[in-house]
Design goal:
Elements: H1 2-6, H2 13-33, H3 53-57, H4 71-74, E1 85-94, E2 99-109, E3 118-137, E4 142-163, E5 168-181, E6 184-200, E7 203-210, E8 215-219, E9 224-227, E10 230-241, E11 244-255, E12 265-267, E13 270-282, E14 286-293, E15 296-305, E16 308-315, E17 323-332
Antiparallel strand pairs: 1-2, 1-17, 2-3, 3-4, 4-5, 5-6, 6-7, 6-8, 7-10, 8-9, 10-11, 11-13, 12-13, 13-14, 14-15, 15-16, 16-17
């Protein structure tokens, strides 16, 4: 069936090669990780929370559509769409205000022509306080709180993207991780890679491989944790109807870490979480959004004023607590 599909006149030879590469990459990743995934379970979760209120308002379905400064996180190949410099900042209080989630990013074309490579840098911090450090009091024969400490996870991304053709772009992000938990810390290094392909002017596919190299976290205690690759294919459709625009997008987050009941769909060590969303815009000034983030409701809204874009997202979570994200993006002419 795949051979018949790629031989039609609808999909050109370049996309055929890209599709085969994606399928081979997915199969190879599954083969390499199926025997060792248990050791990495949940190690990278704090570094994978989404950024930017616009992507989060459509359920995090942004791999194929990412085309602004936040693409360094969602799919670095999307940075190739930038023709101007952009900077963005996001803040949220998550899980009942127990955690602060902050994000700052900047990206710029390296040349003045339309096909210029684009470079970007971004920093994400997820942290809070409230960790109680205890010691055993032998006189009272019970534990006593001796101090209260905080915790934080930092992720620094250096991203690059380039167009290989008017329709095809590739990108990569080198990442540095730092984890601070009470009296201990950990460092990590890894990389993400991604690609986007424009099937038509209104239809785009993308694929992102997070932690492509397998990211290693090394603690000062001597303990080591590995964050294994996550493959995220996506599809987006965007069309204008007069003064209105419509965007629909879908992603599938494929892991090999034996998530089982913790994922939406699973079989053995293989699991899939879904992301769906839609956006309606009026005159590219006012936007309304809705989506599903792994089965949880996501809502969002945005407004553009000159070169400023203000967005807000609401994330529903029945297991923990609801949260809001607010972000500002500035398009520097």
């Amino acid at each position: 069936m795949l051979t018949a599909l790629v031989s039609t006149n609808i999909i050109n030879p370049m996309f055929s090669r890209l599709l085969r590469i994606n399928f081979c990459l997915l199969a190879l990743t599954a083969l390499l990780l199926s025997s060792q995934a248990e050791a990495a379970k949940y190690a990278g979760e704090p570094f994978q929370l989404g950024v930017g209120a616009r992507p989060l308002g459509i359920g995090g379905a942004y791999v194929a559509h990412a085309s602004d400064v936040t693409a360094g996180f969602w799919n670095p190949s999307g940075l190739a769409s930038l023709t101007t410099r952009q900077v963005t900042f996001m803040h949220s209080e998550t899980f009942g205000s127990l955690l602060n989630h902050d994000y700052l990013a900047y990206a710029m074309p390296l040349r003045s022509d339309a096909d210029s490579p684009v470079a970007g840098v971004s920093l994400t911090r997820l942290g809070g306080g409230g960790i109680k450090i205890t010691e055993w009091d032998y006189n009272l024969n019970r534990p006593l709180v001796v101090k209260e400490s905080g915790h934080a996870d930092y992720q620094l991304l250096f991203s690059w993207a380039d167009k290989k053709s008017p329709r095809l772009s590739f990108g990569a992000s080198a990442k540095l991780l730092y984890r601070d938990i009470a009296d201990n810390s950990a460092f990590g290094i890894g990389a993400d890679v991604g690609a986007q392909y424009e099937l038509r002017s209104d239809l785009r596919i993308g694929v992102m491989v997070r932690d492509f190299t397998t990211t290693l976290l090394s603690y000062d205690t001597g303990t080591k944790e590995s964050i294994y690759p996550t493959v995220v294919p996506g599809l987006s459709f965007q069309r204008y109807f007069g003064e209105f625009s419509f965007l629909a997008a879908a992603d599938a987050e494929v892991k090999f870490e034996n998530y089982r009941e913790a994922a939406q769909f699973w079989m053995g060590s293989f699991s899939v979480d879904s992301h769906f969303g839609a956006e309606i815009g009026y005159r590219d000034v006012v936007f309304g959004r809705a989506g599903s983030d792994m089965g949880n409701l996501a809502l969002g809204a945005g407004v553009a004023v000159s070169s400023f874009f203000l967005d807000i997202a609401y994330m529903r979570n029945t297991d923990i607590d609801d949260s809001f994200r607010i972000s500002i993006l500035y398009d520097i002419e």
